[in-house]
Amino acid sequence: MQPLILSGSxxxxxxxxxxxxxxxxxxxxDHVDLIVRVRQDFLxxxxxxxxxxxxxxxxxxxxxxxxxxxxxxxxxxGRNPATKIFDGSKGRTPLITENVIAPPAREECGDAVLDxxxxxxxxxxxxxxxxGDKDGQLLLKAVSLEGKAIRHxxxxxxxxxxxxxxxxxxxRSSEAKKFRRYLEHRDE
Length: 188
Prior knowledge:
The protein has helices at about 10-25, 30-45, 55-65, 70-75, 110-130, 135-155, 165-170, 175-185. By secondary structure, the chain is mostly helical. The chain folds into two domains: about 10-85, no CATH class; about 110-185, no CATH class.
């Protein structure tokens, strides 16, 4: 690989961007320094100048590198030169789920209905953590599943042997007893 020339001319910026494209295909994470430098090039260039036919960093990420700008931002987290200018984290409350990497393990307590409800809810929460939920529909579904799970637990005549202690406590709660009495009187 040729040494990187870190001057500020248009030709140099174009060459660095082309080098990054060539390297990007196979070893994305091995070239964080170059990614950071090309990101800086997009900040330094005149607004009318294009690098590899792209006016913006986001356009370059999508059209040339074939990755979303968000993916590249995560890759260079802590070193992104644009953070000094465009700090989108000001006033932002971080999600406790931002470090979620893998989907949750499947829960199985032997109660097929409860297992299905809990696993679907866990999947929805995972989707929210990974992709967000701008319109709140996934969160609404997750909350709805919570209600269905509670209703299922409360409506059982006897606790299931495989239920975890928290589910056992929900089953034995005073609200559950009231709910079961309601169901008995409703059916009479």
